[in-house]
UniProtKB/TrEMBL annotation:
Keywords: Cytoplasm, Polyamine biosynthesis, Spermidine biosynthesis, Transferase
Quaternary state and interactors: Homodimer or homotetramer.
Protein name (record): Polyamine aminopropyltransferase
Enzyme class: transferase
The organism's taxonomic lineage, starting at the top: Bacteria, Bacillati, Bacillota, Bacilli, Bacillales
Recorded metabolic or biological pathway in which this protein acts: Amine and polyamine biosynthesis; spermidine biosynthesis; spermidine from putrescine: step 1/1
Protein source organism: Planococcus lenghuensis
Length: 277
């Protein structure tokens, strides 16, 4: 991919294009096309099946918002699971919480882990931490085999295509509820309201039928489709908008703050409508 513009088509009629200086790695793995590139604007980037996954420059937004909203909402998150997340960014953020005793990552594609360690060291650098267990396998099966095990589960998967298609189904969310402890919380990246309104609507409907507290929150991620990214949180007991002030311990972040924790749940009308149908 050296020296040219790389375009991600986000719909049939719209996309983003970015300047690539150097191809770092390209491989058709058993699951997806894996591309790593050095880009002019965003540093090193990971693409899977032609879709932006993460970039050195803006990765912190997504990884902080997937991790810290549920981990500050839960009063004592000791056992955490990340489904997907092979680039290691969510795990890096999870480990900033001292209460976390164990963080398990289950990604279906070991090549994502291997090449993220090699070309995205600032993102993948904590995957060998003593508190982390990395497993290569299908997150859907891992959830199906788990019961009453986790305090917090984060689904950091690719889009609902290919290996991730099962990770956006009601059956998967029911499995997550079973895999969580009786006061567990889960968060799933839920794509964007501009191009995937129907997906967000469906996920909200499915999760609401399983979790008594279900909400949507957003963040600004410039390299993701539309730049407005949504996250679904399902909680059995703790309300993310009722976190006690003293719970917010100091933490090293570049995007997440305790004020933004609450503000991220304030939705534009066209997005709020998706949560109410
Ligand atoms: N932050 C990115 C986003 O929002 O699209 C996702 C990053 S991470 C690279 C996505 C990971 O999900 C990939 O490494 C992929 O291998 C993994 N994945 C896809 N389907 C999976 C499955 N069924 N079980 C476990 N991991 C899966």
């Amino acid at each position: 991919m050296a020296g040219f513009w790389y375009t991600e088509k986000q719909t049939d009629n719209f996309g983003i294009t970015l300047k690539v200086n150097k191809t770092l790695h390209t491989e058709q793995t058993d699951f997806q096309l894996l591309e790593m590139a050095e880009t002019e604007e965003w540093g090193n980037m990971l693409f899977l099946d032609g879709m932006v996954m993460t970039s050195e420059r803006d990765e912190f937004v997504y990884h902080e918002m997937v991790a810290h909203v549920p981990l500050f909402t839960h009063p004592n998150p000791e056992n955490v699971l990340v489904v997907g997340g092979g680039d290691g960014g969510v795990i890096r953020e999870v480990l900033k919480h001292p209460q976390v005793k164990k963080a398990t990552l289950v990604d279906i594609d070991g090549k994502v882990i291997e090449y993220s360690k090699k070309y995205l060291p600032t993102i993948a650098g904590k995957l060998e931490d003593a508190r982390v267990e990395v497993m290569v396998g299908d997150g859907f099966l891992h959830i199906a085999e788990s019961e009453n095990a986790y305090d917090v589960i984060m689904v950091d998967s690719t889009e609902p295509v290919g290996p991730a298609v099962n990770l956006f189904t009601k059956g998967f969310y029911a499995g997550i509820s079973k895999a969580l402890k009786e006061d567990g919380i889960f968060v799933a990246q839920s794509d964007n309201p501009w191009f995937k309104a129907d997906l967000i609507r469906q996920v909200q409907k499915d999760v609401k039928e399983i979790f008594p507290i279900t909400k949507l929150y957003t963040a600004n991620i410039p390299t993701y489709p539309s730049g407005l990214w949504a996250f679904t949180i399902g909680s059995k007991k703790y309300d993310p908008l009722a976190v006690k002030e003293e719970r917010f311990h100091d933490i090293d972040t570049k995007y997440y703050t305790k004020e933004l924790h609450n503000a991220s749940f304030v939705l534009p009308k066209f997005v709020k409508d998706l949560t109410e149908e």
